[in-house]
Amino acid sequence: MQHDASQDAAAGALGLQEKNAYLAALLRRVAKHDAGAFEALYRVSAKSLFGLALRVTRTTESAEEVVQDGFIKIWRFAGTYDCAMSSPSTWMSAIVKNQALDYLRRNAYSGFYVEDIDEHLAPVDPDDDFALQFSVDAERLSLYLGRLTPVQRQAIALAYFRGQSQSEIAYALDAPIGTVKSWISRGLESLRVMIDARPAPHHGGSY
User: pTM above the 0.85 mark?
Assistant: First the structure.
């Protein structure tokens, strides 16, 4: 079947049922390694899937990487799509969301480096509990964060460096909100212990 740009434009005007049928037809063709169908699928779906990835990862660069990896999986596993189980959009969204969660698990700070931590902690805002409790140089704080469990580190990074709410973090990490609260609470307590246990500086020196 010949595809052209007019089909993409028409797809946007279709009702939900017709759009699902159109996407399912594209996936069937993609399963046969039809590059034209894959290109059409990308044009029709990439924008919404990028929005999903961006909500989870919160940065354009990471969302772009997630969507790229997600479409690679869609290309590879299109043959496993079953229209009786879910709509094409739901199936592709699940792939991209899983890629986004994998990205967060692989990248504890998801793009935050010492300079970014320093920017978030200085100058100290009297209303910023995190900055007040952990008024320590960014490099040392980065070291302490690295000693936390991965889930504690991720939850704290998302909460204090990304400004995400606990419900947003629960969605991003696919965990109950009570579990997220526990990760943050225990992680902060571990940071307090590490900071309180740091050796005092030598007189007249630095550390």
Answer: no
